[in-house]
C-alpha cells in the first residue's frame, strides 16, 4: 500500500522525527505505485503554485514554504520556518526508488502546455 500525504510543521518531510505523524494534514492511499505517482504529481503542481520555495529530495519527498511563515519557539527564542511537506510513502516509510529528474520536468512541462492558447 502506498500513501501520498501532506504534512505541515517545522521540519521538512524527510526527517521523520519521533511524532512526525502528528504533522499529517492530508492522506490518500493507493494500491499501486503508478496511482500514487499520479496523485503526487497532481498535488505537487497545486502546491508549487502556492509556495515561493521548493526543495526536492530524490525519493518523492518535497518541502514547500513561503518566507515569513514561521512560528515563535519560546525554547529556541526565535522564529522557526514552517514547511508544507509532500511525500509518497510505502507503508508509511520512504520509498526506495528515486525520481528521475524528468519526472519534475514533465510535471512543469505539462503545466506550461496547459497555458497555451488554443484559439484559431
TrEMBL record:
InterPro entries: DUF1033 (IPR010434). This is DUF1033 family protein. The lineage of its organism: Bacteria, Bacillati, Bacillota, Bacilli, Lactobacillales.
